[in-house]
Structures are given as C-alpha cells and as structure tokens.
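Problem 12. The chain below contains 327 residues. Write out its predicted structure in token notation.
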Amino acid sequence: MHPFSDEEKELVETFNSNQKENINIKFIESGSKEDKILENFLTLFARSAQHVTIKKEKREENHLPEIIVTENIRYSAVPLSNELKPFLKALSQNTHTRKREFSQKIKTNLKKIDIPIKLKLFVAPECPHCPILVENMIDMAYECKNIELNIIDPTIFTEEATANSIMSVPCLVLDDDFRWTGSVTMEEITDVLANRDSSTLKASNLRRILEDGKASWLTEQMLVKNMIFPEFIKLVIHEIWSVRLGAIVVIEELAEKNIELANKICPLLWDKFHTVSVDVKGDIFYALGEAGRIEDMVLIEKELKNIDSTDLQEAANDSLEAIKLRI
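Solution.
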C-alpha cells in the first residue's frame, strides 16, 4: 500500500482533529487474498488517524472481506482518492457533519421501507462520478437502518463484479437483480425501494426478514396478498434448522389467521418431500400438522408405511394427530 498523497493526508488529519471520541472500525477477514489489501489500508489509516482503532474478526462462511463503518454500511473496497472523502464522512462522529436534510418525498419513501434491503454499490477510486452516489447512499443508510449498503470495488473483487455483470461504475444493485448505472437521483432510488412488490422477494431477502425478527410482517404480507410467496417454500426446506424454524413460525401464524391460505403450502411441501433430508422431512410433517387438510392425512399415512426412522414416524403421527384435532 502506497503512503497517502498530500491531499489524502490532509483530509485524514482534518478528520482526526475534528474527532472528540475514539472510533472503532471492525474489519471482517474472509480468508481470501484480498484481506491483505483492505488490512494494509486500515493499518495506514489508523497510523494517521489516532482516534481510530481497528478490531479484526474472522467470518466462518465464504464472504468478501469488509470494513464495517456501521452495521448497515460496509466497505469491500479501499476508499482512497475520490472515495476517501465520503468514507471519512461516514465515519465521522460529528452528527452535524452527517446530518442531511432530505426532500419530503425521500423522507416519505424512506419511512415506508420496513424490511431489510441489501444494496451493492460498485465504485472505483478514480471514478469522478462515484463519490456523489456513495455519499447519497451513505446518507440514506444512516437515515434508514433497513438499508444494508455494501460498497464494493470491482477492480479488487473481480469475481463479485462478474457475478453481478458489472460493466461500468458507479453501479447500484438491489437484491442482485435490479440496478441503476451512472447518474441517478435519490428520488428514483427510494421510489423503487419503497414500492417493491413483497411477493416477488427472493428467498435470500425473505430469510433476512425472518432473521431480523419480522416473521409477523411476512405473515401479514402474505395475508394481504392472499398468496404463499413463490420463494417462501425454499425457507421451509432450508438445510439450516434456524431458517426452517422461522418459516414454520410464519406457517403457524398463517394457519391461525387464515387456514385456507395456509392449506396452499401443503402441495408445495409434498412436491419437495422426497428431495430433502430426514431432518427436513420431520419439519415438513410438523408444518403439515399446522396447515394440513384431510387429503394430507391420506398422504402422511401412505408415507408412514415406508418410513424406517423412529423419529420420523413420531413426527408423522404427531402431524396426523394435529390435523385430526383441528378438523
């Protein structure tokens, strides 16, 4: 890592002199070769900004290394050159420096965002247009904690750029499938974020909603639209038990409030039944007990004839009993 330029050094020194409290920056290592690139920047930065302390953590799952500014603002980039100023603004503990007055339309849109939204913003240090969008998005993320902003340098993380079909910067990607490239207004972005059709959310988005403790929100959305969201079934049969548990909570709430709607999950569960592990089958039986119909009892009894696992037999019998008591 080269030393700061005179201009970069001056920006960091000014930033440091304005800080009254220590700032802790969390650095998440990924075990990749790119870890060192970000770590070298942070080491250099901490030497010049005495109020900054770097705390390293390792992530078990495969992920990009990240500099955590706040829990919902993360850098997988080296914010030098044009990107240093917005990075310092994001770190600033001076609320006056961070405070931004939004238009009424933007305020209204941001207040409507009631579920976690993941945004990837691809930028490059030498890009003259990127800092404007970075600063706008950082301000939005400070205002709305449901926005998770990941700022990524595609020249460092080339595989991530390829996976997201990044051809130019700046490029803002919403949930891996909606994007803005080049100049874009905050009104345009917040309009899309605030008015997404919840039924089109991907399984990864639904999972974040459950992990954020908002199972009831998801239940209410499906009740309002009177449909089981297409990607929801992926959570019910997910390999991770905690994800399945969150989905089952939703099924329980659906069954309590609208059993006819809950019934609609049953054919979807049977479609996946013979493709999943024994543990997942046990949870499917539980879900069928909550939402099942008479015809599901017939199918469960048929499956019982071929089940060797004692635990799975017990789950199937519990499911039958639950349906009988409800019907």
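Discussion. Residues 145 and 182 are 25 Å apart (CA to CA). Students who got a different answer should revisit the alignment rule from Section 12.3.
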